[in-house]
Each structure stands twice: as C-alpha cells, then as structure tokens.
Amino acid sequence: xxxxxxxxxxxxxxxxxxxxxxxxxxxxxxxxxxxxxxxxxxxxxxxxxxxxxxxxxxxxxxxxxxxxxxxxxxxxxxxxxxxxxxxxxxxxxxxxxxxxxxxxxxxxxxxxxxxxxxxxxxxxxxxxxxxxxxxxxxxxxxxxxxxxxxxxxxxxxxxxxxxxxxxxxxxxxxxxxxxxxxxxxxxxxxxxxxxxxxxxxxxxxxxxxxxxxxxxxxxxxxxxxxxxxxxxxxxxxxxxxxxxxx
Length: 246
Hints:
This protein is of the alpha+beta class and about 250 residues long. About 35% of the residues lie in helices and about 10% in strands.
C-alpha cells in the first residue's frame, strides 16, 4: 500500500509554515496512522532530514494526546483517535493532508504539535470536588438513579483530545467543558459546588479565547468518546440556573 502525505511543517510558532509532500510505500492496511508517521520519520531520519513532530503517548485511544487533522477532518475519516485510525480507511495511492489543530486557543509549537494546556486550565478552574466528604462511605449509602449514573459515565469518557475544538467552525470548547461540568454536576458528590463549578469553568473557557457554540454539531461527530451534543444544552441550562442564583 502507498500513500502520499502532504504534511504541515513549521519549525516554530513564529516561523512560516507550509505543506511538504512525502510518498510512503510498503505500508500495511492494518497499520495505524501513527505507525505510518513512525515509518515516515524513520525514513526521514535515515536520509538526514528533520522528522515530523507530533504528539503521542498511550497509542491505545485513551490519553487523547495524538491530535491532528487528517484529510481535512479532526482525527481523520473515522470517529476515533489517530492512533486507532487504520490505513484501511484510505484508498491505495490516496493523497492525504496532515495538519495540526487549528484554533486560536491552541497555539502551534512545531509541525503537528499544538499547546492544548488551555483545556487543563479550564479543568483547573472547577473540574473537581472540594467539599469535604469524610471517610469513604459504604458503596450503596448514596443512591444514584441509573439514568444519572449512565449520563455521568458517558460524560466522564471525555479524553480531552481537543478534536471538538478543531472540528468546530468557531473553535469552541463547549463540548469539552460541558462534559467536564456535567459528569460531576450529575452526581450527588458534585451537587454542593454545581453552581460555582459551571460559572467558573464557562468563564475560564471564554477567557482562554475559545469561540462561542452555535450548535453546528461538528464537535459531537468528531468526538472519539461519543459525547453527545445535548451535553452542551445541559451545561447551558446549568449556567443559566447558576447565574440566577448568584
């Protein structure tokens, strides 16, 4: 199998960037897209060229580190992470553009690497529980309705990859923030700080320069964890309630 990659190369935040074309052959359809980049980088290094910089860590679709735009879509043509995107999703001989996340809140570092620490700062503003709870209670001491538990587990699945931001035409982090707000606010343990949490996290999201949500829906389609669009509506309702009580 052979693919032609047009990879965004940029040596630093202030340097000019450009797409550089590489033809990579001898590939297997069962390889992941990250393994393709590994093959490319090995050949570049052997040829004395600078390897392509890209983020990666677990390579199991868990950590959310390997974020990039593949073929014009966040994470590529499948709703998964790039490390779990297999080359069988592409046609033999296809030309594929590979670019970094494009968002004002994600400044570029080098090549395909962007600084996504804005997401960490949003979590740091309120994505936790500080209310003292004493010792560990009996597992069944606090009943949680099944629907609430399912919703909390669903939203807690967010891996913070930033695909929702990259896919959104406005560069909004509303789906990410909503997931981090909702999975705590839905549970009894998070209820005492629910108002403070949503107000702080939405304010932090806006301060980081993310765009506003206009319900385009691209974020939910790109999310590898399957966080649904109504999660944003739930956050908006919680925010309105909190502002009335503030």
